[in-house]
Predict the structure.
Amino acid sequence: MDKTLENLISLEEFTEKVSLSLKESFEDEREIRISKVKKNNGIEHIGITCIKGTCNISPTLYMESFYDYYKCGNDFDEVMDKIKSTIKRAELNKNVDLSYFKDYDKVKDRIVYKLVNKSKNEKLLKEIPYVEYLDLAIIFYYMLDSNQFPDASILIYNSHLQMWGVNTETIYEDAKKNTQFLLEPVITNMADIMKEMILRNIKDRYKDYERIEEAEKAGKSKEAWMEDLANDMTSIFGTDEFEIPMLVLTNNKKQYGASCILYNEILDDIAGKEDTNFYIIPSSIHEVIIVPDNNDMCPDVLGSMIHEVNTTHVKTEEVLSDSLYYYDKAAKSLYIA
């Protein structure tokens, strides 16, 4: 049951309460700090950092998800158990040597780029190097060793360039080589993605069933039955009666995959295989949707759809753009439609 409005504390009050509880639990073992963390598109998250001794890397937990869990009616002590458990899993027991980060020659091979909305990140762009691209901005980050820090990264600031003694052009050239190599492009047919989604939903729905009558009658396992059901439900996809002529472009990590549109010749390769010009729908910072121009698509309708989806279905910090883009095969050029 949701908390009643009169008893519901604000996110800021909740964060203060969590901070006090952590200080009581850990006593002098850890220093607790509250901070606001800037994210994409001007969004700020409230975080709590738990510093253990002299360790030079400490976990920061964003409070919004825990606050939502609390608002759903869960007891505060239960929420605190989740928070403390998360902190202990994320903590390191020793310092990490990051001295190499001061030497550009030691970091340049893992500097990559991503695309963000230019107008929504005006404040951030004053502090970081970037390259303009249409109505977007190409910004840069350093990918930490995935063995030590899976999916962790460091955003590159102007102060880093000063420390390294390099300019934006230098890191851009290095990032162009690195990004396509470290974050390989992945192109998937929309019909295949819908099949995966349906199969996932079926598995979620039936995962707690001990017996499935249809599977037993067919002498099949529960997993095989669910896969057959998904295939039957999606067999119409890709047929003449229900064709989905769309492709999804992202990278192998499915993080910041919209930047794949910058890769050398990838758009031209897609245009060659599809033998047509195409629209690009910026579904999020993580992926884009390729829609072949078969003369039956209305740009105004696609543009309205992008705005509607961004407003209602995409997290604010993951929105890339409200613009519709168009790739001209003959001109080998991408522009705003």
Observations:
- The chain has four domains: 5-90, 102-182, 190-242, 265-337.
- The chain is about 40% helix and 20% strand.
- Residues 5-90 form one domain.
